[in-house]
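Reviewer comment 2.1 asked that we show a complete input and output for one of the modelled complexes. We chose the 1-benzyl-1H-imidazole case, as it is the one discussed in the main text.
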Amino acid sequence: MRKGSGGSRRARVPGSVPGSGPGPPPPLPGGAAALLWARSRRRCPRLVPPLLALAAAAAVLYGVWPGEQRHSQRHILRSLGALGASWHLELDPFVAATPRGPLTFTNVVATLAPAAPRRLALACHYDTKVLPEMSPEVAQVPPGGGHTRHGEFVGATDSAVPCALLLELAAALDGPLRQSKDKARVTLQLLFLDGEEAFGAWSAADSLYGARHLARRMAGTAHGDGTQLSAISLLVLLDLLGAPSPAIHSHFPQSHHWFLRLVAIERRLRELGLLELPPLAQPLFRLEPPPGAVEDDHVPFLRRGVPVLHVIPLPFPRVWHTAGDTEDNLHPPTVRDLARVLLVFVDEFLSL
Ligand code: 1BN
Ligand code: ZN
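Response of the prediction step:
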């Protein structure tokens, strides 16, 4: 779709393949943000209606009730199935031992062009924390309100908004993804992981059920000259997003050059007036070192050598693992600005 649109492609290092080379990416071209502008105006109007990303978040949000995870799964499958790009949709069910006995989990793996040699994987978890009962600290609703149906834990930032962002990116880029999918060397893969949350105290055995299963499975599945796992050029894991004023840091030297790309994209979009957060607001993507590390779904992939961008705010949202983690406490301009920055990142990574 954008082929021949001119002025929007970043310079390519001769002989290199975008998204798969070991070196730092070339600088963000001046045309990238203009491209977003043009795309948002003409070709991807989904980013124009200001409440759309939030609506998508809410749609997932209300599917993510404990014990009703099939609703979220159906929402994910229907959303991707309705797009023109013909995603290859795969369910990855498995049984794992948990403190509550053996339980069935199901990852959802969406791949645009399964035969493409390399993949940019975007990931989130679509399970919601199951609370044994509403403990007083979890039930506490922070200032600013929040509501739950029947007092259940919702998980708007944890992780409905990250899932909605993945679906929104797939929808906003549907046209260019459809047009490029058959010839692209690097394709897009969306991983909706189950069983991220611990049932009891977080431990290596009680957490990351879906990520551990899928990383092991991909490492054992041949793909081209290597495996499905080694075909992942970069895994971008989104978690705990949607609350106001997130501070997102670079966590890994192997992916730092990609993090710098996010920083540059945010800066450029802000300079061009294409972000909603005020110009003097703290940036979403911060250059200072992270205050700590967070165990999350990226760990089983990182341990097997996959480069990872962990897009998670530190500190966590103040509503984290409380009944206040609801739509009421989301910050729509932040959600939409995150969507804009990530959209340009994916667009450029895949040279759409
Ligand atoms: C992220 C969202 N996590 C749980 N829900 C990961 C996590 C692991 C957070 C350990 C804190 C401690
Ligand atoms: Zn959680």
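The two ends are 8 Å apart (CA to CA). We note this here for comparison with the apo prediction described in Section 3.2.
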